[in-house]
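Final report, closing paragraph on structural work. Over the funding period we assembled a curated collection of sequence-structure pairs, and we close with a single example.
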Amino acid sequence: MKYVCLMTENIKNGEMKFVVVTGGARRIGLAMATRCLRMNFGVIIPHRNNLREIESAIEVGHIDKTKIIFVECDLLKNVSPLLSIIETYPVEGLINSAAIFEEGFADDSINLARQTGLNAFVPIELISALSENPSAKWAVNIS
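Its predicted structure, as stored:
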């Protein structure tokens, strides 16, 4: 499993609750991740090889990245790395904001199937994993 964790001691000791924010690198997901950080949640952001983009956005927003766990995984191909993190940390909530915004994505049946997977099947799998976490309380699907 490949992930970057720049945590402080209070996070490592379980004194902080976490929120998983899919799509946390851009648009609504980034705004939600930023808001959760400002509310003193630790934030878990899965990403597909775009860690620099996320870090740049966080620097622009003057966010403390020591409260973020970046998990490299493609939610449509292999969600296992994220599931392992959900099992390990006290995750209180999930904000599913992952989406595919490409020109004409709805015209292409493959992209439409990918979008449906991100907004239907992935949240079900993540919520199922979250339900096993004793800290879990809520989930939001933005689609």
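The CA atoms of residues 108 and 114 lie 10 Å apart. Residues 1-10 have pLDDT under 50 and may be disordered. We thank the funder for supporting this effort.
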